[in-house]
Design goal:
The chain is globular and about 60 Å long. A four-stranded antiparallel beta sheet has the order 1-2-3-4. It contains six helices and four strands, in the order H-H-H-E-H-E-E-E-H-H. The termini are far apart. The protein has helices at about 5-10, 15-35, 40-60, 75-95, 160-170, 195-200, and strands at about 65, 110-120, 125-140, 145-155.
């Protein structure tokens, strides 16, 4: 090949597009062969999917505790529980005016009595008695009425199972003094009553 032929090949305008196409094709082949580089979008998506799966496992884990009303296996115990709630509410209403309702909140009302139970052992964890009260004041200059409201969350320390709590607090049990209700009955495993514990809250 003579010198003039080499020079004309080097400067040929048809050769540059071909070389560019070959270079691009080679680059794409290398990328596909090596796979995604660390930190790219595909890898991030995979890691995110793993975290989501772990999170889903945590969400689906069985609960450790539940409401006591969900733990009763017999209709009789369920009915006795509702009898207990009604008895506690009635006992509180009977003595409120002479005891806990002598302060600013003279109209305290029982709102809810709840207990939690371990799903593993069936033992009571704790109980909570919620009360609400209010009073109102009249503004002398405007005649507007300003209400003051307050909630009292009273924790009740308990031990044993829901069944032992029912046995101890219902009026028909031998431990309940004659003419008194579950508010004054000794709690399971303790000499104190719910009435005693309310004194530290209300």
């Amino acid at each position: 090949m003579n010198r003039s032929h080499v020079t004309s090949l080097r400067l040929s305008p048809d050769l540059s597009p071909l070389l560019a196409l070959l270079s691009l094709s080679l680059s794409l082949s290398l990328v596909n062969a090596c796979g995604p580089v660390p930190g790219d979008a595909a890898a991030a998506e995979t890691e995110s999917g793993t975290e989501t799966s772990v999170s889903d496992l945590r969400v689906n884990r069985p609960p450790a505790f539940r409401d006591v009303e969900e733990s009763f296996s017999s209709e009789d115990d369920q009915n006795r529980w509702f009898d207990l709630l009604q008895g506690l509410r009635q006992n509180f209403d009977d003595i409120c005016g002479d005891t806990f309702c002598e302060g600013d909140f003279t109209n305290l009302q029982s709102m809810s009595f709840r207990c939690s139970v371990s799903t593993r052992t069936g033992e009571l964890k704790t109980c909570l008695w919620l009360f609400a009260g209010s009073y109102e004041t009249v503004t002398a200059s405007s005649g507007n009425i300003r209400p003051v409201t307050k909630f009292f969350s009273c924790p009740i320390a308990v031990t044993g199972t829901p069944h032992t709590l029912l046995e101890a607090l219902l009026p028909t049990t031998p431990t309940t003094p004659p003419g008194r209700g579950p508010l004054w009955a000794p709690l399971p495993g303790s000499p104190s009553s719910i009435y005693d514990q309310l004194g530290n809250c209300l």
